[in-house]
């Protein structure tokens, strides 16, 4: 299990319970989002999950299943105890640790696995995931449920690797959903936002271990953004699997403005027949760790080449982040206009504890999961089906709440500004603003998703404020006192 500042999730919840009396407090990874429940439940096995939900159904108890809380925003919060007359439970499936290798290059794993531990377990069997996020501190179901992704124009998000799953609905009924027997339904369940029940296990595609070559190149920055981003768009034509870390800006405390750093860097990955020393973990060169702005090449097993384990994550100050997906054809326009919008709003950042602002770009192949931010359902014939992914990180010198909240409020505004213009979709766990109208236009399968949601959860036991507001689940508002 992944530790939070040296503490494991159940222990953290337990200690918080001791500190706060009878309420259980859940927090996300940087402790700025949280909720209080009446209980914390960690069933020992799948039968325990069934039994628990079955007993809670007549009482219409509120149930929020949590992974590792590695997100920005309130997707994973429970309904606070006392807000309604229903009991509020936080549920962790951390004890469900099944691990089974199947014959067809898939593995079946319990919902208790963290991605980090699972990657290590797969390594013991010379297996690997091809598709991971930039970090691997999430719970495996938590990662899948929001569409966690890496980069690659031929690479889809992690959820697309799910070929089957087992889920328990609000009545306590266990159901298996797989690509052979219920392929359409699997499209609803892959990215489920915790709204469709408690997923107890998933079967995922894996691959035999193979190495990737990672090349990092220093690039020159300029405030001629059209030129800068046209060069990056050209680089994406050469490299299928590439992340651009930049441009970087530093807060100039005298000028109270962002100053662009003269250089930044891009990394790309490609297959290799190299068999020598594996060395990408010698310099993670991501997430504030390592000596990054230099040209270098390394080789490693896929997971270690594309994603950083916890020891490769050095930044621990508060930060705010947005991540938007948009059709790749609009890359230059999107990048220029997001950057200019940010610059125009800089006066609002004066007087706060800003340190760095980092733009990051990735690419992602579209997919057909109903709630995937890279879903292809409303694309036109002019679109290739590949998405550009733009991230902006606002990092701070110290953990200052005012700075965090100021930046987060600002982060929400990008979707209002550009969502309709660029068919842009927000990452579910990265400052996604409430806008059910926009959600319906960029997730055309939302009505189908909500039908499955109502069937799985007729009494709104799994719904929280985020889901009601983001997806427009009107039927749950009065029950949840929203
Ligand atoms: C610093 C940082 C870097 C990140 N980098 C990336 C990145 O590179 N790419 C990317 O795509 N994302 C990235 N993310 C986002 C992250 O991958 C997602 O937010 C992911 O969902 C986190 O998983 P978790 O288990 O920690 O989440 P949680 O917030 O605990 O859970 C996420 C969702 O899954 C649901 N859930 C959990 N377990 C179950 C279950 N058993 N059954 C049903 N539902 C369940 C929860 O209810 C919730 O809705 C990053 C986040 C941070 C903070």
UniProtKB/TrEMBL annotation:
<dbReference type="Pfam" id="PF01565">
    <property type="entry name" value="FAD_binding_4"/>
</dbReference>
<dbReference type="GO" id="GO:0016020">
    <property type="term" value="C:membrane"/>
</dbReference>
<protein>
    <recommendedName>
        <fullName>D-arabinono-1,4-lactone oxidase</fullName>
        <ecNumber>1.1.3.37</ecNumber>
    </recommendedName>
</protein>
<dbReference type="InterPro" id="IPR007173">
    <property type="entry name" value="ALO_C"/>
</dbReference>
<dbReference type="InterPro" id="IPR016166">
    <property type="entry name" value="FAD-bd_PCMH"/>
</dbReference>
<keyword id="KW-0732">Signal</keyword>
<dbReference type="InterPro" id="IPR010031">
    <property type="entry name" value="FAD_lactone_oxidase-like"/>
</dbReference>
<dbReference type="GO" id="GO:0003885">
    <property type="term" value="F:D-arabinono-1,4-lactone oxidase activity"/>
</dbReference>
<comment type="pathway">
    <text>Cofactor biosynthesis; D-erythroascorbate biosynthesis; dehydro-D-arabinono-1,4-lactone from D-arabinose: step 2/2.</text>
</comment>
<feature type="domain" description="FAD-binding PCMH-type">
    <location>
        <begin position="33"/>
        <end position="209"/>
    </location>
</feature>
<dbReference type="InterPro" id="IPR006094">
    <property type="entry name" value="Oxid_FAD_bind_N"/>
</dbReference>
<dbReference type="InterPro" id="IPR016169">
    <property type="entry name" value="FAD-bd_PCMH_sub2"/>
</dbReference>
<dbReference type="InterPro" id="IPR036318">
    <property type="entry name" value="FAD-bd_PCMH-like_sf"/>
</dbReference>
<dbReference type="Pfam" id="PF04030">
    <property type="entry name" value="ALO"/>
</dbReference>
<feature type="signal peptide">
    <location>
        <begin position="1"/>
        <end position="23"/>
    </location>
</feature>
<keyword id="KW-0560">Oxidoreductase</keyword>
<dbReference type="GO" id="GO:0005739">
    <property type="term" value="C:mitochondrion"/>
</dbReference>
<dbReference type="GO" id="GO:0071949">
    <property type="term" value="F:FAD binding"/>
</dbReference>
């Amino acid at each position: 299990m992944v530790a939070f500042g040296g503490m494991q999730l159940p222990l953290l919840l337990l200690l918080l319970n001791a500190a706060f009396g009878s309420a259980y407090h859940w927090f996300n990874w940087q402790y700025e989002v949280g909720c209080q429940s009446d209980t914390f439940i960690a069933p020992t096995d799948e039968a325990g999950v069934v039994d628990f939900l079955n007993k809670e159904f007549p009482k219409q108890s509120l149930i929020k299943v949590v992974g590792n809380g590695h997100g920005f925003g309130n997707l994973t919060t429970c309904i606070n105890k006392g807000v309604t007359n229903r009991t509020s439970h936080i549920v962790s499936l951390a004890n469900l640790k099944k691990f089974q290798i199947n014959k067809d290059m898939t593995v079946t794993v319990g919902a208790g696995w963290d991605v980090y531990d699972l990657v290590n377990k797969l390594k013991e069997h010379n297996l690997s995931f091809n598709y991971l996020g930039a970090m691997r501190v999430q719970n495996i179901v938590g990662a899948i449920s929001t569409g966690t992704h890496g980069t690659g124009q031929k690479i889809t998000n992690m959820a697309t690797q799910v070929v089957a799953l087992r889920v328990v609905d609000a009545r306590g009924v266990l159901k298996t959903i797989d690509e052979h027997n219920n392929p359409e339904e699997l499209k609803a369940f892959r990215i489920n936002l915790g709204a469709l029940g408690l997923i107890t296990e998933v079967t995922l595609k894996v691959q035999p271990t193979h190495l990737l070559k990672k090349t990092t190149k220093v690039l020159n920055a300029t405030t001629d953004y059209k030129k800068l981003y046209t060069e990056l768009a050209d680089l994406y034509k050469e490299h299928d699997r590439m992340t651009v870390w930049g441009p970087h800006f530093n807060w100039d405390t005298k000028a109270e403005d962002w100053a662009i750093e003269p250089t930044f860097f891009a990394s790309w990955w490609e297959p290799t027949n190299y068999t020598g020393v594996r060395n990408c973990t010698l310099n993670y060169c991501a997430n504030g760790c390592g000596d990054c702005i230099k040209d270098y090449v390394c080789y490693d097993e896929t997971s270690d080449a594309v994603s950083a384990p916890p020891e490769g994550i050095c930044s621990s100050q508060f930060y705010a982040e947005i991540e938007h997906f948009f059709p790749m054809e609009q890359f230059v326009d999107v990048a220029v206009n997001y950057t200019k919008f940010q610059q125009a709003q800089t006066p609002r950042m004066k007087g706060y504890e800003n340190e760095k602002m980092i733009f990051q770009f990735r690419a992602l192949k579209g997919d057909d999961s109903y709630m995937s931010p890279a879903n292809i359902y409303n694309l036109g014939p002019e679109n290739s089906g590949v998405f550009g992914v733009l991230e902006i990180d606002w990092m701070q010198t110290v953990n200052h709440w005012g700075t965090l909240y100021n930046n987060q409020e600002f982060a929400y505004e990008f979707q209002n500004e550009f969502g309709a213009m660029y068919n842009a979709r927000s990452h579910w766990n990265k400052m996604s603003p409430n806008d059910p109208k926009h959600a319906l236009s960029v997730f055309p399968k939302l009505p189908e998703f909500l039908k499955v949601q109502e069937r799985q959860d007729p009494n709104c036991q799994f719904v929280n404020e985020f889901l009601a507001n983001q997806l427009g689940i009107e039927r749950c508002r009065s029950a949840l006192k929203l």
